[in-house]
Inverse folding.
């Protein structure tokens, strides 16, 4: 390695060869707000980022467009309800997200990779971990941010429906209960989808792969499960329909809310899980959320510096 | 400028028999060093264990054995407290290309716990101090390597740490950029009052910048001493003068005059041009003046006076020899 040759060097000129920046250095004596504050800052930066805020104009287009696409049907339904004086909303609160599941999948596929792949790809992660925040803080901030972004995406149209329903003078108690059930459902959906999206996206620093993989997992699993359920239903194996539903994120939420949140099932023939099977749905949903969190922790412990 | 380490000095970093073993390699092998305030260079070839040491000192990677303290805090238990007080500039790229330097450094300042307003103010100050002006509003993707290195440095300094770890900050820079970066590093201590641990695989560049240099090889401590000691064994001054009618052998005249003033010289006989080039060892600042005066007094022309830096490998050999000589004197 060593080429033993004396290196001629100029007579050293002591002092600065740097441009002298004529401003004195000021030290910082103000507050240092520590881990919790840093985690909150990362959360809000990531949440804003999930809608392209604080990023380039180009990165705002898709999330904003999908947000509008999510809200427009709700607005139309309200207009119809008010105009035609319907006695009930044309769609259940709990059914709305299932109805627009493709839009939600597209959103998570585009935003989960942007939330985590960039830090991996440009090796920014070590800069976070050289600061007071720990692996768990980073994972929690990112997970919470994406889940919140999904909640905004899925709960806003429900809010539009609810406000519209009250304006149309539909029954207050009925509407409030149904709206609350819808919110519980989209909360679980947000946590589940965000977890799955982040786990997949954090596997690869390549954003394109991340997007494709999330879309594949979300839509292929839903397509496959729906197809199998339809086959089972036509083959008179109705009893297996709820069990098949355990194998895709969308049908998991569908089954859970059918069993416990007063939703009508979108499974073939409306054969949703009963309370017994529903308990399994709850366990699987909560287990998956916990597993996603655990996998993310493991992933980032390995990234280290 | 040279800081002599004494027992009274505050210790900024201390390691005690620190080892790090990976399944296949021993990255650090019973390393014991003490680092005081000022600029300290950590020199070693690729794979010597420099980055591994920094990761342990940040409390991010547990040592296999031994212990270490940074600013008096144990790395094994006080990682978060250490990371609040130190800054870190990684050796690799770490900047997202699609945000501006300002946006990025503000975010990193907040990650260090600075409130929003303070984060913005400190970012503006720090970017100016590292020499980024108008370009700081443009996306980082369009920056030159030198500018990117400055942004990396800025994010390590933005929270006004007590100590910064700079992992190969001159990597990829051209000679001018290198000198500017080294000047900046010097100022981090002299003007900002922040202690620095800077790594490099070139001893030469750190010699000029650091108060103290630690040389590691294969995870082992090879040498730890103040740079004045280093200069003594590593620099040689080469002088070449013209001949005149009064002094037909200018070289000899200078040699005699220097001898008369108690400065030893040796010529590099055997090399081409031998006899015309005079070599002095152990030159301090005053030696330059002395040579200049002597040459002027004799009425000779100074063709060249240059410092010959030895390659790091030679230092290893020299220090080995010194160690052999020192046998019996202990430590
Ligand atoms: N996570 C790791 N797993 C296994 N071996 C590692 C790991 N990190 C470092 N090493 C090994 O430890 C040794 C020291 O590596 P280190 O990165 O500390 O060297 P370095 O002095 O920083 O070198 P360079 O000048 O190339 O940056 C090398 O042999 C390296 O291959
Ligand atoms: Mg290294």
């Amino acid at each position: 390695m060593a080429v033993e040759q004396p290196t001629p060097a100029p007579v050293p000129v002591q002092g600065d060869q740097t441009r002298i920046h004529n401003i004195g250095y000021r030290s910082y004596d103000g507050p240092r707000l520590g881990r919790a504050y840093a985690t909150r800052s990362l959360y809000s930066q990531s949440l804003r980022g999930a809608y392209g805020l604080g990023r380039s104009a180009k990165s705002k287009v898709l999330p904003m467009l999908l947000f509008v696409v999510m809200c427009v049907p709700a607005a139309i339904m309200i207009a119809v309800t008010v105009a035609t004086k319907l006695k009930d909303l044309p769609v259940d609160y709990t059914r709305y997200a299932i109805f627009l599941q493709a839009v939600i999948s597209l959103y998570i596929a585009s935003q989960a990779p942007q939330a985590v792949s960039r830090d991996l790809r440009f090796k920014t992660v070590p800069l976070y971990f050289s600061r007071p925040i720990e692996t768990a803080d980073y994972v929690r901030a990112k997970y919470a941010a994406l889940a919140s972004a999904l909640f905004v995406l899925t709960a806003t149209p429900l809010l539009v429906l609810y406000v519209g329903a009250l304006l149309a003078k539909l029954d207050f108690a009925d509407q409030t209960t149904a709206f609350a059930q819808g919110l519980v459902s989209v909360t679980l959906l947000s946590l589940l989808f965000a977890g799955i999206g982040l786990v997949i996206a954090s596997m690869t620093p390549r954003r394109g792969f991340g997007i494709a993989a999330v879309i594949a997992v979300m839509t292929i699993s839903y397509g496959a499960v729906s197809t199998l359920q339809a086959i089972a239903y036509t083959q008179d194996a109705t009893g297996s329909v709820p069990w098949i539903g355990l194998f895709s994120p969308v049908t998991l939420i569908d089954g859970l809310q059918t069993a416990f949140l007063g939703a009508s099932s979108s499974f073939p023939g409306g054969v949703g899980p009963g309370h017994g099977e529903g308990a399994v749905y709850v366990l699987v949903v909560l287990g998956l959320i916990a597993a996603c969190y655990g996998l993310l922790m493991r992933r980032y412990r390995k990234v280290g510096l | 400028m040279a800081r002599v380490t004494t027992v009274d000095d505050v210790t900024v970093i201390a390691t005690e028999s620190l080892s790090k073993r990976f399944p296949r390699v021993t990255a650090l092998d019973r390393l014991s060093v003490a680092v005081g305030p000022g600029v300290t260079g950590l020199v070693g070839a690729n794979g010597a264990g420099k980055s591994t040491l920094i990761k342990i000192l940040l409390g991010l990677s547990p040592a296999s054995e031994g212990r270490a303290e940074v600013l008096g805090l144990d790395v094994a238990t006080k990682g978060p407290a250490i990371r609040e007080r130190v800054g870190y500039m990684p050796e690799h790229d770490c900047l997202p290309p699609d945000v501006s330097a300002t946006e990025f450094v503000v975010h990193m300042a907040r990650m260090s716990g600075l409130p929003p307003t303070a984060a913005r103010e400190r970012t503006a100050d720090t970017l100016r101090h590292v020499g980024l002006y108008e370009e700081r509003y443009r996306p980082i993707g369009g920056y030159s390597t030198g500018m990117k290195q400055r942004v990396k440095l800025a994010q390590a300094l933005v929270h006004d740490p007590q100590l910064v770890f700079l992992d190969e900050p001159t990597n990829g820079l051209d000679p001018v950029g290198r000198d500017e970066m080294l000047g900046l590093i010097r100022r981090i201590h002299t003007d900002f009052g922040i202690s620095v641990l800077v790594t490099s695989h070139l001893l030469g560049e750190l010699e000029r910048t650091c108060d103290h240099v630690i040389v590691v090889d294969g995870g082992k401590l090879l040498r730890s001493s103040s740079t004045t000691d280093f200069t003594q064994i590593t620099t040689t001054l080469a002088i070449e003068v013209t001949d005149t009618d009064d002094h037909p052998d200018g070289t000899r005249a200078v040699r005699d005059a220097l001898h008369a003033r108690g400065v030893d010289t040796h010529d590099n006989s055997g090399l081409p041009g031998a006899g015309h080039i005079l070599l002095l060892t152990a030159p301090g600042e005053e030696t330059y003046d002395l040579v200049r005066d002597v040459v002027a007094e004799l009425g000779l022309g100074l063709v060249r006076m240059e410092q010959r830096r030895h390659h790091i490998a030679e230092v290893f050999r020299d220090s080995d020899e010194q160690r052999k000589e020192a046998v019996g004197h202990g430590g």
Summary: Strands of chain A lie at 7-9. DSSP finds eleven helices and one strand in chain A. Chain A touches chain B through 54 residues (CB under 8 Å). Chain A has one domain: 35-300.
